[in-house]
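ok, trying the design again with the full structure, not the truncated one.
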């Protein structure tokens, strides 16, 4: 199986995690694109979706799925029991690096508003230790150099993602070379720097379950370490 086939297998397996009749939280990326296409064929099962990017919103609509406004859903007291999203890296404690597609801020917002985070990946995304994938950090443009110099002082090598503007009108620094020995502490520290919108570490609050597709099949792991 090639990587795209594995992504599709993980995406299809995530359908079993949905709650029938409920609103679905939907992330971003190529694996999620496949999830959206699978969901489109079963759209009667859900009461619409809350989306984490303009890209996913367009694809949801193209699949006949209503995209709901997060503020409105929450103001109406409606529940979003499950959030499905991909990752660039995920470790054994289900902590993730996300933001390869640049949607990290809205992903963190929607994930926080939802119940369970279901991460869908092919096995190449599973790592012992986070940090090989350059860490995306969304920054307010005027703070770019301020944030970059602080990241350098932590040993990182930040690079501006050229020609890219986030859905929120900001820029992304992709930071290579970081030693993420304590991802929770790192996320907390960088999050509070002036000018940082979001750091692409999802460590303080990681996934609840990861669905991993490999040539030998589908494996589900939970944050408590259970496998199935
Ligand atoms: C987008 C993300 C994606 O979930 C992540 O980049 C994985 O993408 P893909 O499924 O294309 O490998 O965080 O901001």
């Amino acid at each position: 199986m090639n990587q795209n086939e594995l992504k599709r297998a993980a995406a299809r397996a995530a359908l079993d995690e949905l709650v029938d009749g409920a609103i679905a939280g939907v992330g971003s990326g190529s694996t999620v694109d496949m999830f959206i296409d699978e969901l489109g064929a079963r759209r009667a099962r859900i009461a619409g979706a809350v989306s984490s990017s303009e890209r996913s919103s367009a694809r949801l609509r193209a699949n006949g799925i209503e995209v709901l406004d997060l503020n409105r859903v929450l103001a109406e007291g409606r529940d979003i029991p499950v959030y499905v999203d991909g990752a660039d890296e995920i470790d054994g404690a289900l902590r993730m690096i996300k933001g390869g597609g640049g949607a990290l801020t809205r992903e963190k917002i929607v994930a926080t508003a939802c119940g369970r985070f279901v991460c869908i990946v092919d096995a190449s995304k599973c790592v012992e230790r986070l940090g090989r994938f350059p860490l995306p950090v969304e920054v307010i443009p005027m703070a770019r150099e301020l944030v970059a110099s602080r990241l350098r002082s932590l040993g990182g090598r930040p690079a501006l993602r050229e020609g890219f503007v986030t859905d929120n009108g900001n820029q992304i620094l992709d930071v290579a070379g970081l030693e993420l020995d304590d991802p929770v502490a790192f996320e907390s520290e960088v999050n509070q720097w002036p000018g940082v919108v979001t750091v692409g570490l999802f460590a303080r609050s990681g996934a609840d379950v990861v669905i991993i597709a490999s040539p030998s099949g589908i494996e589900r792991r939970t944050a408590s370490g259970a496998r199935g």
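Keeping the full-length input from now on. The longest helix spans residues 3-13.
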